[in-house]
Design goal:
two-stranded antiparallel ribbon, three-stranded antiparallel beta sheet, globular, alpha+beta, 46% helix
């Protein structure tokens, strides 16, 4: 579970506790997600920032050590390197990142309801496409 959490945070860059719970373990207790997440924080691999005006909602992201550990994982090959490395960096992209992830959660919930396979890593955020002449476009997501 801790390695999966690191992979999901590396893949999505940041997520709220509720989003992580719904994405990875929707039918389990909150404790099944909070214990490994807090263990990773104590180990210095993840951190969080509290969202403003949110009743103390936390958004979780990889620490610099967590980024270093996950950087060479197969999951990250071909992914652009836009890690969130601090609470201030997390807060600058939070609204957009969490909205895209909320959309992913809708697809994941529908897939579960229909009995289809769709996991936490079957949706890739911020996929860059070359347009030619050195120009690029970054799509919000790519669904697998």
């Amino acid at each position: 579970m801790p390695q999966q959490l690191l992979a999901v945070l590396a893949h999505h860059r940041e997520a709220t506790f509720q989003q992580l719970h719904l994405l990875m373990r929707p039918y389990t207790t909150r404790q099944s997600m909070s214990a490994p997440l807090n263990r990773l924080r104590r180990q210095g691999l993840v951190d969080f920032t509290v969202l403003p005006h949110s009743m103390r909602t936390r958004t979780w992201y990889l620490s610099p050590v967590g980024i270093q550990i996950t950087r060479d994982w197969t999951l990250m090959h071909g992914r652009p390197r836009y890690p969130i490395t601090s609470a201030s960096a997390a807060s600058m992209k939070t609204t957009h990142t969490l909205t895209v992830l909320r959309t992913h959660l809708t697809f994941a919930a529908d897939a579960r309801r229909r009995g289809d396979e769709h996991g936490a890593l079957d949706w890739t955020p911020e996929v860059s496409h070359a347009l030619g002449d050195g120009e690029r476009i970054i799509a919000d997501t790519l669904m697998h």
